[in-house]
Each structure stands twice: as structure tokens, then as C-alpha cells.
Amino acid sequence: MRALTLIFSSLLLFITSGCATNAGHSADQEKPEYLTYVKAGDKVPVTQFIDTQGNTIDLSKSSNNKLLILFATWCHDSQRTMKHLTASDLYLSPNVDIIGVGREEDKQTLDKFAKEYELNFALVADSDRSIYNQFANIGIPRLILLDANNEVVKTLVGETENVITEVIW
């Protein structure tokens, strides 16, 4: 019975710890500090992406504001954020380009996720974290708001109940 209680307690701790996991990080180690490598006023470090459909996305060719969402399909905070996004006015705004970057995700998983969540914006597979690592060390979802000139306006970590309400340019 004691072993069952220990297993249940460990599982509960794992489930409630959020989506801040980092490769190679064990529960015995101290939780690493959330670092964001871009701040308001910085130029975005990545301006071109290839989406899961093979299309090139060049941020410099759009005069809209942009919302980059760095997420993972398995993360409950990312899933909640996508649900809140698709229910918001922002989702259908013609003045905002939304790009989802799937951290450590592949094309097939992202395509399945897009269908399940009925996403109408481009998704980019970042299987090796080469994109994500230019923005932060841990923590998803990460929302990076860019203005029309591709300067960072605001960065948010979406581990709160409805981070989409904080997306204001």
C-alpha cells in the first residue's frame, strides 16, 4: 500500500509540474531558471521558417503584427493555450500573422495536432530545438509578440490559465 501511495504521489507531482521540462533534467535536480533570450525592442532572431506544408514563411514580407507560439503538442499548457487562442478574436484577425513552432515535434505530429485543434495558421517543426533555443531555455508555451517591423513587443510564458488575454500590442 505504501508503494502505491508513493507511485501515486510521484505521478501527481509530475502531472502538476507544468510543461517546463528540459531534456536531461531530473526531478532530483534543482528546477532551472526560466530564461528568455529576447526582450522588448529586440529584432526577432529568426525571420524565415519552413512550415509543415513546405511553404517558406518570411516575416519581412508581412506588414502585420506577428504572434509566434513556441509549444509542444503533449503539453497541457500548450493545449489549453491553443484552445483559448482558437476561441479568441485574435485567431481570425486579418492584422495578425500567427505561427506555431512545435518544439521537438515532427511534421506528422504537428499535422495531426492542427487537424485535432482545427488550427488555421502555419506550424513549423523544430525537431532539434534550433529555433526554440534562440528564444528561451525552458518553458512552454512561449508567446512572442512582434510588431510589423519584426521587433519584439512582449514575451509571455503561457503557464497561466488564459495567457491569450495578455496578448496586446
Topology:
Layout: H1 2-16, E1 48-50, E2 56-58, E3 65-71, H2 76-86, E4 96-103, H3 107-117, E5 122-126, E6 142-146, E7 152-157
Short note summarizing the structure:
With 169 residues, this protein is of the alpha/beta class.
Helix content: 10-25%
Mean pLDDT: 87
Class derived from helix and strand content: alpha/beta
- Give the overall shape, derived from the CA principal axes: globular
Strand elements, count: 7
**Main sheet makeup:** 5 strands, mixed
CATH class: Alpha Beta
Give an overview of the whole structure.
This protein is an alpha/beta fold and 169 residues long. The protein has one domain: Glutaredoxin, CATH 3.40.30. It is built from three helices and seven strands. It has helices spanning 2-16, 76-86, 107-117, and strands spanning 48-50, 56-58, 65-71, 96-103, 122-126, 142-146, 152-157. A five-stranded mixed beta sheet has the order 5-4-3-6-7, with helices on one face. Strand 6 and strand 7 form a beta hairpin. The model is unreliable at 1-17 and 22-27 (pLDDT under 50).
Which descriptors apply to this entry?
two-stranded antiparallel ribbon; disordered N terminus; 22% helix; 3 helices; 169 residues; 22% strand; alpha/beta; Thioredoxin-like_sf; Glutaredoxin
